[in-house]
Design goal:
Strand content: over 45%
Number of helices: 0
Low-confidence stretches: none
Radius of gyration: 19 Å
Strand order of the largest sheet: 1-3-10-5-8
Shape: globular
Length: 174
Amino acid sequence: NLCSCLDNLTETEKNGRISRANQLPMYTCMTGNLASQKDTDCYMVTLPKDGNIKFKFTHHADAYSYHWEATIYDTDKSTVLNEGYIEKEEFGCSNLPAGTYYIKISPISGGNPILNTFSDADYHLIFIPECTEHTETTDYLTEIPQDSAPVEIITVCNHCSAVVSVVSLEKLEP
């Protein structure tokens, strides 16, 4: 489960307009749901440093049709990205200045009425900021090493907290 190791929030209605957007903190799994074909969910995210905005999106709807579209706006309500049908688990924008951005999740309109149907299934949205450099990093062990137990070394960017790499070691050598 994508959200099992993260903090979890559930959207608070009425968040259908940018002025009522729910705050989506970094690395937090937001569970949302479009209750009707007229429902829209808006979330506010803060990019702490210049860099990239990335979202992970999963859902519990059937695998045969696309039910949602995503649009990212800046503070002037100008469209930064119109993802359209959310067909993949990750989407986002590159090379953005630090600041506040909004993401709107809405039902698909138009298209093939048989394949592009409305769904009120839950979805999960995670905001993952990425700096463009990852020049200053810190390595962490996932657990205290035991004699022959495998461990992972996770490299994390000091600017954006993104996981830059994960290296599995079968056995730590002295």
